[in-house]
Amino acid sequence: MTTPLLLTDLLDRSRELFPDKEIAQYGDGGPRRRYRYRDYYDRVARLAGALRELGVRPGDRVATLAWNHDRHLELYLAVPLAGAVLHTVNLRLEPGEIAYILDHADDRVVVADTALLPALEQARAARPGMFVVGTDGSAPGVLDYEDLIETGSPLSGPPDVGENDLAALCYTSGTTGPPKGVGYSHRSLYLHTFAACLADGHAISERDTVLHVVPMFHANAWGIPFAALMTGANQVLPGPRPAPADIARIIESERVTYTGMVPTVAVDLARYALARGTDLSSLRALVLGGSPPSDDLVRTFTEDLGVPVFQGWGMTEISPMGTFARPLPSADHDPAARRRFVRTQGRLLPGLRWRLVDDEGRDQPHDGKTPGELLVRGPWVAGSYFRDEHPESFTDGWLRTGDVATIDPDGYLEIVDRAKDLIKSGGEWISSVALEQALLHDPAVAEAAVIAVPHERWQERPLAFVVLHPPAEDTEDTEPADLLAGLRERVPRWWLPEQVLVVDALPRTSVGKLDKRALRDRARAGRFA
Amino acid sequence: MTTPLLLTDLLDRSRELFPDKEIAQYGDGGPRRRYRYRDYYDRVARLAGALRELGVRPGDRVATLAWNHDRHLELYLAVPLAGAVLHTVNLRLEPGEIAYILDHADDRVVVADTALLPALEQARAARPGMFVVGTDGSAPGVLDYEDLIETGSPLSGPPDVGENDLAALCYTSGTTGPPKGVGYSHRSLYLHTFAACLADGHAISERDTVLHVVPMFHANAWGIPFAALMTGANQVLPGPRPAPADIARIIESERVTYTGMVPTVAVDLARYALARGTDLSSLRALVLGGSPPSDDLVRTFTEDLGVPVFQGWGMTEISPMGTFARPLPSADHDPAARRRFVRTQGRLLPGLRWRLVDDEGRDQPHDGKTPGELLVRGPWVAGSYFRDEHPESFTDGWLRTGDVATIDPDGYLEIVDRAKDLIKSGGEWISSVALEQALLHDPAVAEAAVIAVPHERWQERPLAFVVLHPPAEDTEDTEPADLLAGLRERVPRWWLPEQVLVVDALPRTSVGKLDKRALRDRARAGRFA
Q1: Which stretches make up the AMP-binding enzyme C-terminal domain (chains A, B) (predicted)?
Q2: A222 an active-site residue?
Q3: B513 tagged catalytic
Q4: Cα separation, A100 vs A517, whole angstroms
Q5: Residues in chain B with pLDDT < 50?
Q6: Per-residue pLDDT tens for B64-84?
Q7: B381 to A9: CB separation less than 8 angstroms, yes or no
Q8: Which chain A positions have a beta carbon within 8 Å of B2's beta carbon?
Q9: I need a labelling partner for B348 at 20 to 30 A (CA). Which of A273, A520, B198, B302 fits?
Q10: How confident is the model at residue A492 (pLDDT cuts 50, 70, 90)?
């Protein structure tokens, strides 16, 4: 009963029980490669052997800088099988940030898509002893991935590690300070995989064909690759820079049953599918995460496209799954009630614990009204950062999420705001998230972002940025005054923003989240448009 | 990420997320009590406090001798919450065996149904310091359960134990030698609970209402009480000695969605429901375990009663779930193929590993043909027995199941025989299970059992016992010669039993399994009828 929980067990399981299930690799508009778990196993075993032959030892870090493709999926298991730590690097970072991260993690090898090699130049200059492998061919000083697989002697498990040793590592792109590394142990990823396959969670099963839209450099692609290996689900990888059209066509042609993405990608997918009549109805679950979806988006998918939508909430520090929003059975025959549940962040996954605390650390009631900072702990929640002290992020073993939230009596979480995005006006809190939702209620508004700006009398006041839908013919342009008038009916008078600014687009971070820091910079510099 | 996995977390979870879900207690033909998880929590906390006040310390054993009822369910969590070990004792054992087990486990307290107190007399005489609690009232020298709850100071978790400390203990009723104790750690039960809630496993979810037919003294009632707490499923307890009529009526009135039982109980349930027109269609899953169901039984449930049937296989030593038989999607529209899948023991649950080995310990192919002894290991598989050395049961950390089985290329397990039930005739193996299935193919046969009897020339030969259905009017009695003639068409000639004996009933063990040891005794004594 003390058998260790090792991630590589999932690899053995997939070969033994599901040797004929498929991995399909897309790219350049169509399928490029299709192979089976039995072949996947062989390639992973050879790659793990090749890494060992390069000198990779248990505990060493091996970085990836790659899009979502078959070779990245091979690295997901080959690196842990070699006993090493899979360090997925966000390819949207600046070269200087990448260099910082590779240096901080002390990566011994980096495997990169050949097209991304320029982003590595700075890092390579600083780490001359680091091996560089190109996923699609060699170059000067760059090893060829396929050569490694061809020459590697197959390694078989289990690796010479314990369950609490690291299997993976991912850096968060914090909004302040340098990136912080979150290490995932074999045990934590194993338990997280169980959570992903629960009937009341994402419910990944052998009947699924999963499509990896979430970047594989982003918190283990939500852990879905591991869940697919555990259950024998088919996996589909979209390749570099998938456009909404690619995602829609892949779902239709592969009869994808499960996928996850951020709402902004889902908005584009829905628009494309509706315009072209793409059939997305094979999806049994579209899970949205990263930020809450609008009511309109949920309705479009469920009612117009026949796709059940769920919301998941998590963080890099939580491996990443923390909650899952499955509507209560009482909402089964009430579409509006279902949408309300889906727009919450949902309920805590089993295995985890949570608390809501005020500024003094006192527990707040779970009444759906009283906000507090959300603390989380559990077997797949980070208790520290990799090679860094960040005591401000932890309290008595609890992770401070930085999210301000309410929890209702049924246990549904609603993130009210990031702690630092709350607007404190005249001693009262204004929720920027609630204001954004109120703005989105206007059918003319496509996107909305609200930030705090300093104010002499009130300390802080809200400032709103909105992106409008293209106006239909014969209609007048929507003006900020119209939006303010609409808001007046929906929010308390003292919540009304100082200004509503119409902009062409909102700034986003490297993982596609709204970049409020950039908006604050703009506001500070007076660049409002 | 090193947060311990403690079973008592499930109790906190149920109170926090599912306070209004129900526990319904039946008995005397109808519902006797109905209460909510919030009340369950309060009673469990008080009971745990009362146990501590009786002197129970972390690691101490607390025995139960009880039917499936609400108070037994309270003990399931209260004992671990007190840091102690829940020791469920099989109430069908002889008083001498019970005394042996209580002495071996060194139980500090025993909580027993008042009607079962006589079976404890021998044990009490031998253990004068042991506290005895009656679940339904006091008696001389017996404490009253409700008094304990009334006077106990609520204890809150977590208990002062580590994840590898024992939370539960169950003795196997071996067919040879004294009973052996299997201890379950907090960690092992926690992981087993995850496995019970997987979409590809029993898939226990918040939408379920589970009925506990499997005795709660039998390997944690298959772990379903813990799964219900994790997911917030409603729980229904049938009370003492539930008859098929009780089970049928409870399923109908509570709209039970999930239950598990042994095939012999299911046969009676089906017969009752068909005769009375009971509606069992609320069941989304009827899981059969303990022995494989006949094709006829599976068909009756799926086609006549509209109840999907699955098979699970396990052992007390595996907490108990080892496999789950969910048909491959390819069988979706082929009822006969579905039944074939369900009649296998199914596929290994994630987290576990298995091997098939021959007498010399060499791995055998998973080709669906080659038999071998099944070995299992994993985080909820025993690696030793409680306070006993049984090295013959383990090989290099693997549990020797004693089952001879095949595994097909898709990973479906079929138990061919108990190692000791195989018949070795002229150097070749004859499967007693296959012979029993061949006998059951005759519509006249209700039950069949085949054992080995010594034979001068062939070393061993098969001997068959059958129970016949009552003959329909106007038909002649089935004779052994008819059965042998039928067998000739289904099995190799050298498999034909020496004799087919028609008997009124087959002997069963205390957990309802066919008692082949008793049949061998009968054969040895020449008592064939």
Answers
A1: 435-513
A2: no
A3: no
A4: 21
A5: 529
A6: 999 999 999 999 999 999 999
A7: no
A8: 164, 379, 383
A9: B302
A10: confident
* Chain B interface includes A184 (CB < 8 A): yes
Q: Cα–Cα–Cα angle for A268, A270, A271, nearest 5°? A: 65
A464 has a chain B CB within 8 A of its CB: no
Query: Using only C-alpha atoms, what is the Rg of chain A?
Result: 23
Cα B324 to Cα B202, B258, B301, B349, distances in angstroms:
8, 14, 18, 7
Q: CA-nearest residue of chain B to A350? A: B230
Q: Which long-range contacts (CB under 8 A, 24 or more apart) does B449-453 make?
A: B449/B506, B449/B514, B449/B516, B449/B519, B450/B423, B450/B497, B451/B421, B451/B423, B451/B516, B451/B519, B451/B520, B451/B523, B452/B421, B452/B422, B452/B423, B452/B424, B452/B520, B453/B498, B453/B523
CB of B10 less than 8 A from some CB of A? yes
Domains and CATH numbers, chain B: 1-21+33-200+217-223 (3.40.50.12780), 347-419 (2.30.38.10), 422-525 (3.30.300.30)
Between the CA of residue B10 and those of A154, B56, B71, B229, B504, what are the distances in Å? 42, 22, 18, 6, 46
Q: Do A199 and B195 touch (CB under 8 A)?
A: no
User: Over the stretch A96-148, which tens digit does the pLDDT of each residue have?
Assistant: 999 999 999 999 999 999 999 999 999 999 999 999 999 998 889 999 999 99
| CB within 8 Å of A148: residues ≥ 6 apart | A46, A47, A50, A51, A54, A133
Closest approach of chain B CAs to the CA of A158, in angstroms? 12
ipTM of predicted complex: 0.86
Give the C-alpha separation, B387 to B398, whole Å: 18
Predicted structure pTM score: 0.87
